[in-house]
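Form P-L/3: holo structure prediction, ligand MV4.
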Amino acid sequence: MFNKVLIANRGEIALRILRACKELGIATVAIHSTADSEAMHVRLADESVCIGPPPSRDSYLNMHEILAACEITGADAIHPGYGFLSENAKFADILDAHGITFIGPSADHIRMMGDKIEAKLTARKLGIPVVPGSDGAVHDEAAAARIAADIGYPVLIKAAAGGGGRGMKVARSEAGLAEALHTARSEAKAAFGDDAVYIEKYLARPRHIEIQVMGDGGGGGVHLGERDCSLQRRHQKVLEEAPSPALNAAERDRIGEVCAGAVRKLGYAGAGTIEFLYEDGEFYFIEMNTRLQVEHPVTEMITGIDLVNEQIRIASGGGMSFSQADVAFSGHAIECRVNAEHPDTFVPSPGRIAYYHPPGGLGVRVDSGVYQGYTIPPHYDSLIGKLIVHGRNRVECLMRLRRALDEFVVDGINTTLPLFRDLVANPDIQDGNYDIHWLEHYLAAKA
Ligand code: MV4
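OUTPUT (holo model):
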């Protein structure tokens, strides 16, 4: 096991990782920018190193400074959290060259899944159902027109280097295809420096359902069920739940086993998420994330498995503490992402938290990096915490969530808490009756 882990992140996820390290008896090193000297992760870590000025590129993305912090403190591993350097294959390679363990999958697996075309071809080879479309990159208009006619309109042009909704263009008919192809290609070139694009059948009203997987790096692999993350705004998840209201146990076991099988065949190490669109009873692979995700607590709540603890065990060579047969799903969990933003306009609201009272009680978990008197800096994303609620079933979970939201007080800044109070009272949410477009329509109607 490691002696000392450097946490290359900030906010609630830095605290989450710190807690897992403490339980394993591992010393912790926090890194921080000059804007984060007063942050909770800095206060709670055994040691801390200031690595640069506020902009992320000069601090949380600065590989050389992070490496120097590692060498100064003698940390033997780095946990990257999510975002920042968590899916940077070059960072994983550099750590490897310096004999520091990257707590995550191999650089090769990160690279493979970072290229969305290669990821999809790999998924198909591994027996994962994919969205009908081009077999790899499309090079010219004639090829695009042939594929589109074959799969049927509307089609979606996606960037190979994209992901998370960046660089996508819909073509409703052949008349709009050339322009969609051209626009997607030039946007991809400008945004990612790579103009490779591919074509997929456009699914009109799917749900976003993702499977949590974990591999031991030696050919062992499990799935931990799904999360329904359909409630999104501008490709940002807002509320996530498990299990999905749309799936039954047989569907879960079937797609879960396909994903676990893929992880075993890949020899994948650590936590991963295989993302699907789900429509009319069918799953369609879109991407794989090779990191711990923001919404991992909903899976922890229904399985009782500490995903960060397992990531650390796997990276240290100790393997997973459980097998598929040990995974039992219990009850229902919902996560609300509490952002420092106006609940209607989503305008960021950094500033001082004048009063802070998080909810508590049975089945209530708050993962947050803030405290009363803390000033949220304006330089980073606006997530200040996550409220995760568990119940024996979805109805109990929703009742408990409503109660927890009523208790939660954050004064001095705007937060998205009022949005969640509206959502739990909404009949469609109560019925689990939503798809990936539901929230955008709801917000447009409210405005
Ligand atoms: C799609 C799609 C419809 N059809 N692919 C957006 C983010 C990226 N990860 C994949 N995305 C989509 N891919 C096909 N073939 C619709 C979306 C999409 C979406 C997906 C998940 C959650 C929210 C979304 C919002 C708009 C579009």
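COMMENT: The two ends are 53 Å apart (CA to CA).
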